[in-house]
Prior knowledge:
Blueprint: E1 11-16, E2 22-27, H1 29-41, E3 45-46, E4 66-69, H2 81-93, E5 99-100, H3 105-110, E6 118-121, H4 128-139, H5 149-180, E7 184-191, E8 196-203, E9 212-220, E10 229-230, H6 237-245, E11 250-255, H7 258-269, H8 274-277, H9 280-297, E12 305-308, H10 309-314, H11 316-325, H12 333-343, H13 369-377, H14 381-385, E13 425-428, E14 435-438, H15 443-450, H16 454-459, H17 464-472
Parallel strand pairs: 2-4, 4-5, 6-10, 6-11, 11-12
Antiparallel strand pairs: 1-2, 1-3, 7-8, 8-9, 9-14, 13-14
Amino acid sequence: MLRLPRLKRETTADFRSKAGDRWRCVGTPHEIEIHRPILERAGFTDAGETEPDEAIGDDGLPAPRGVIPLDDFARDDTPSPEYVDRFIALASELPEDVALRHPAFLVGLTGFPDRGRWAVTGYPGCGNVVLQRTIEQIDLLRPPREVDRAAEEAAALGRHHGRFMYRAIEALLADAALSTGHEADEFVIAPGNLGSCSIRITLAKDDTGVDGSMFINYLPYSGFLGDNFGAHSRWCEPAVQFFRHFGYRRVYLAVRNPVSVLASNAAKTVRPLEHALHDPDWFRMATRELSGYVEAALTCPDAYRVVRYEDLITKPRGTIQRLALDDDFKVSDADADAIWERIGFKSLTPAGDEHLFDPRSDKRPYFRAEHLQMMNDAGLWPAFTTYGYDIPTAGELGPGELQPPPPVEQTPSALYRRVDTRDLCQVIDEDLPVWVRADRPGLAEWVVERFRDDWPKRLLYALGTGFGDLTLRGGRPRPDQNPAG
């Protein structure tokens, strides 16, 4: 039977969903009141009297279908220390058949209004970041939009959940350090696959003086709500629904000559880039991923506008002006030129030059004729022809055969690089929406097993189906289908 833990200044209030299920909000009277408008927009009403078929718990209250721990999100969007404790305590006390949700799940039920935000997707190495930064600069020329209170509240809940996830991951990594001896040095939460995130972690040096890395994918994340969206999410029908549901009117697919894309990814994996590019196993994996990404995008061509990286860097003024027209305003020649002066060929991410590999150079000399057969075997030619790129010929590529791996000069930061799967052990759970990769023996297995326990397992479902079914319906992507991590 249900017995809710009693925490500081806590009270409860019951509501009914549109389906008639009873949901219990747990928090202070103030927290309950500031959530009431959001609950009402999601179709929740005061629960009223107990229904005859509702079971009564040990605390004398009717058992709810789900519980929502609340916090004063209007304060500064940062979870109070009590909130994390409240969530963990509830996770350990609630029966498995009683859902535990972060209040941001309510936004998943209602969707998000169109507030002029944009989304950019594209396979890694297609110039996603430069396109995002360019559109950000264009938007700065627009006068501020009128405040929409409902949208502001929804966005604040999203930021609250994002920061709550950060604290939860801190706690999880602290557990891992105590249990496995592998201590996290630094981590970032990066955009993942549609309403989820990728946790990128650098590990402190081990006894031999070698540092390491770990990646955790598919964790729910709503920190994007009300903000622009940039990720490498793979296209599919749920992706189309996702962008519509959360108010993205301007949606772009960044594309680039596949030869440059593959060279860019190799350089983000290891330097010199030949260490990956001339490794047949790495190259076959990369070409299969890229081919599958393009194939998926071609199933829904009306869902986005294509922006070619080459058009942006060779015709920046006209490309910028066309992007501005998508938001119904004009940018002068002078303003377009000023934007490109700030953006073009600059280091635009915390990774600095690790993220930028000689963007204007011809990448064909890095390739050999043998690469062509592997591209053909992967079905990569539509990635060229669909977007107006010429399929390379053997005579245009570098001479000779694939080179043996040269000594590694630099391994880019695990926080921002292209994941080098050659060094990682991966565990993808068949039952839980979690996929973990690490280069330390046994660490990925430990983390996945930890997600089977009370509060870490509850994290995986804290946003419910309003986010999760759009992300996971039809099955999770296979590891070789997901470039986001």
